[in-house]
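Weekend entry, working from home. Most of the wet-lab plans are on hold until the incubator is repaired, so I used the time to fold the two sequences that have been sitting in the queue since the last round of cloning. Logging both here for the record. First:
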Amino acid sequence: MSAYFDRDFKAHLQADSAIVAFVGDRIFPLVVPQAGSIPALVYTLVDGQLSNSLDGFTSGMVNYAVQLDCWARTYEDAMNLSIAVRNRLNIAATSFNTVIGGFPSLSEFEPDTRRYRRMLMLSCW
């Protein structure tokens, strides 16, 4: 993931008071670092495609496919966090726009950790 996109993506989410009320600064790439760091958001780059024209890569644009996981202790909190994230990502960021490819994509419960997850699939330009 581009260092700039990574930084801007996290900053865009942290600029929303509803998201911060849920997770504070617990927005992580790839994994939640500690079991006690819940609720949290975890984002993963699934794919990145350069936007080409007939002259090659001249647009400077990259389309990132991002998986965003909303982790919480209760199903209701996971759902409410995912709604706050969806609402925020419907607002264009300074350096990228987002298209949500289905809401929600997946709900899951981890019995070993007793955590709930709501997953969103995103396309960010």
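Second, folded right after the first finished:
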Amino acid sequence: MSYIDKIFSNRKKILVTGGAGFIGSALIRKLLKYSSLIILNIDKLSYASDLFSINKLLDDKNIAKRYKFLKIDLYNFKEIRKALFDFEPDLVFHLAAESHVDKSILDPSIFIKSNIVGTFNLLQSSLEFYETLSDIKKKFFRFHHISTDEVFGSIEDDKLFHEKSSYDPRSPYSASKASSDHLVRAWSHTYDLPVILTNCSNNFGPWQFPEKLIPKAITNALRGTKIPLYGDGLNVRDWLYVDDHVEALLLSANKGTIGESYCIGNNNEKTNKEVLFEICNILDELKPAKGSYFNLIKEVKDRPGHDRRYAINPQKIQNQLNWIPKYNFRHGLEKTIKWYIDNHSWWESKK
């Protein structure tokens, strides 16, 4: 029996929303490869979605028989309710969300529909399903909502985000995620739906759609095109390797206290400029070009409302759930860059 099967000993069927996204697909791959759990993946398949990394595993018949995918937009209440009642999950991981800040500035309506109305529809469907369960089944059912540190706004001093930090979202994206957090807490307090919340720092790793800072910088560098640096490049983010985040999600969902939230970060604070410099430095070592990749970095106009600093204090999840991240920034970044070098055809197909 795997360690995942052990911590999921009372849960056999897992529903994951947003399982074609970067973090959701990493979670599903982990569950399929290292457990005997039955997985339902629900995703509307937007421009940034990708099922290839999961579908590669389905050549194994033992894995394939434990996995099902449904193309559903959470905005469609009837479809998500039917899927949930048909599948009868023991645990819901809710990762589905529109997540690109620049796109939320251009068209906030998509983010309202997906992140707020979609979360409401999933919550209400889950509550209706939960109320049909036996007392024993209710004891083990969980609704795990995965959110972001961006809901807390921007830190200007040396403080860190924590579970009691005030909400202060600055973009349509972070405002929509903050709204979804509040909905989840309301369904917990008002209707006694057993929820867990986690707020994570910036993720990176293989299979990430090349619109985010790190994969965009890597793929632009490998193409020999401009690597954009917003503003002065001194905006700070706390970087978390995606596999470490997945481990934190598994622990939180199974050992976390109902109604509690957990902040997930790795004390890997880097300015955007430092991140780009590190990427170019590693690329100069791994895949030397005619000139240094540093020459491709170009300052561009900053985005509106660009938060200055995010940083998380992860002591609660480390102390209470014994979560220990395995990857420091350099280690995770090297693995990520090597993956993009070796998987050129995948990211070129995402233009």
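Plan for Monday: verify the second prediction. The two ends are 41 Å apart (CA to CA).
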